[in-house]
Amino acid sequence: MLKLTYSEFGLRLEQIDASLEQWVMQRTILALRISEPLYVQSGNASFLVPTAAVRASLDRSQMTCLPNPISFCYVDRDFYEVNIAGVWLAKNTDVCEGILAAELGDLAESAVYRLWESSQPQVPTYIAD
Question: What is the four-CA torsion angle of 18, 19, 23, 26, rounded to 10 degrees?
């Protein structure tokens, strides 16, 4: 399952080893136990990836062979928009922050995750001696 978290700090994408139904049920139970409102609805999420990242990660045939919940939209010469259908969870209907969870199959989830990961800025790692 892919989990896309939209917050004031940006987008975070994770691969989770759980079924969509199981994960949504756990989130619902958690919200009930802590008396937090939870809005659950079918929805879509999207994010931009550089064209170079798409070309490096997927060839044209892979882009068209991914399952229906995923689509690529050419934005301009620099970016593609990746659209994913799934289940939207948020505190209410009027917020832009929330989570989209989607079950796409292992191969598609791995491809989308690698694509997103390759488009993230690389932070240098320093090892102290």
Answer: -90
* Six-digit token string for 115: 């694509």
Q: Identify whether the C-beta of residue 75 lies closer than 8 Å to the C-beta of residue 42.
A: no
**SS3 label, residue 34:** coil
In which element (H, E) is residue 73 found?
strand 70-76
Buried b (16+ CB within 10 A) or exposed e, 2-26: bbbbbeeeeeebeeeeeebeebbee
| Greatest distance between any 2 Cα atoms in the chain | 51
**Over the stretch 24-58, which tens digit does the pLDDT of each residue have?**
999 999 999 999 999 999 999 999 888 888 777 66
